[in-house]
Design a protein that fits this description.
Structural class: alpha+beta
Keywords: Chaperone, Mitochondrion
Organism: Penicillium cataractarum
Shape: globular
Largest sheet: 7 strands, antiparallel
CATH superfamily of the largest domain: Galactose-binding lectin
CATH class of the largest domain: Mainly Beta
Number of strands: 16
Order of helices and strands: HHEHEEEEEEEEEHHHEEEEEEHHH
Helix content: 10-25%
Domain NADH:ubiquinone oxidoreductase intermediate-associated protein: 45-170, 224-276
Distance between the termini: 43 Å
CATH architecture of the largest domain: Sandwich
Strand content: 25-35%
Number of domains: 2
GO molecular function: unfolded protein binding
Number of helices: 9
Family: Belongs to the CIA30 family.
Length: 343
């Protein structure tokens, strides 16, 4: 592929190519392709205002609705350890337009724009070596959903996962959740159409302990900064199309990720406000990341080696259950992986 003058001018064609070559060279130099990487792979860093500018917002106004959505860059506040970040905010309205063809409204979302091209074609994120999508956010407790679009056969397919936060896990039923539970029978029937096989765990109103990892481990939010890091397992995302869960389910094509975004479809009228600092792919919280994590999240910071909960090297679990101790038992998570490489 030979870049034309138009392509070369689009958002820095040669800059993107140089950055991708640099990233791939580092992977090859560090032989990261031969083992599970321990360093995070940053996808969207909203400390950079250009990352915010590189995203687009969507709302039901496109079909005549009345919901609004904005994504603004918010500068850092060193005094409170608040990093520069993106603010996703607006208002949800379920009012129907005069257009009789529109039967449901009340949604808003944002995602990154097309990443463009580099010397070898369209540019994708390759997160195949990673287990989790990590998001550092400050939530108002509403029912947000993380959306990932890949270069799949069906272009409109989106893999989704609920963005669970402390508000979901600690406080029981928030006013938002109480509103959800009091929805009309008509809306419950509509939900049955969206999920004919039942609501998948990753999209349920309440987080299943087996699939979610977050920093919400304490019983109180006192003394916290409001920021938290949530890890969502890539293998828990659910394939949907226009809001409907698709069957059969297919694995997320992690080697060709086109876009990542967050949407709000709880259809509860009123304002929303979600702050996003950074989105990245990871295999757990390593020592290189913990300083930033503790500085921003405070008491809600994830501990080092959070990936241990995935039992990457949990081959000794059954033996330990039977009371058998082995001298070859190894550490799990990032530390365990490192010890394996050093052998």
């Amino acid at each position: 592929m030979i870049p034309t003058r138009r392509l070369a001018a689009q958002g820095g064609f040669f800059k993107r190519s140089a950055e991708e070559f640099s990233r791939l060279s580092k992977i090859a130099w560090n032989t990261e392709a031969l083992h599970t990487p321990t360093k995070p792979y940053v996808l969207l860093d909203f400390e950079d205002a250009s990352s915010v500018e590189g995203c687009k917002t969507m709302a039901d106004r496109a079909v005549g609705g009345f919901s609004t959505a904005s994504l603004d860059f918010e500068p850092a506040e060193p005094a409170s350890n608040t990093p520069a970040h993106a603010r996703f905010h607006g208002s949800i309205s379920t009012k129907l337009p005069t257009n009789w063809r529109v039967e449901r409204t009340g949604y808003a979302a944002f995602r990154n724009r097309d990443r463009g091209f580099w010397l070898f074609g369209r540019l994708f994120w390759d997160v195949d070596p990673y287990a989790y999508l990590a998001l550092r956010i400050k939530s108002d407790g509403r029912r947000y959903t993380v959306n990932i679009q890949t270069d799949s056969i069906v272009e409109t397919d989106i893999h989704q996962h609920r963005l669970y936060t402390r508000h979901h896990r600690v406080h029981g039923q928030t006013p938002m959740q109480e509103a959800l539970r009091s929805r009309s029978a008509e809306e419950s029937g509509a939900e049955g159409e969206l999920y004919p096989q039942g609501i998948p765990d990753a999209l349920s109103d309440f987080p299943p302990e087996s699939t979610i990892i977050s920093s919400s481990s304490s019983a109180t939010t006192s003394g916290t900064t409001g920021w938290e890091t949530v890890l969502l397992p890539f293998n828990s995302f659910v394939r949907t199309n226009h809001g409907y869960v698709m069957e059969p389910q297919t694995c997320l094509l992690r080697s060709r990720v086109k876009s990542i975004g967050i949407g709000l479809t709880d259809r509860i009228e009123g304002p929303f406000d979600l702050r996003i600092h950074k989105i990245w792919a990871t295999n757990g919280m390593g020592e290189a990341d913990i300083e930033e994590e503790r500085r921003i999240c405070g008491a809600d910071a994830l501990p080092i080696d959070e990936g241990v909960r995935t039992a990457w090297t949990n081959k000794q679990a059954s033996k330990e259950e039977d009371g058998q101790k082995s001298s070859t038992t190894k550490e799990k998570g990032l530390k365990g992986l490192k010890s394996e490489w050093d052998e």
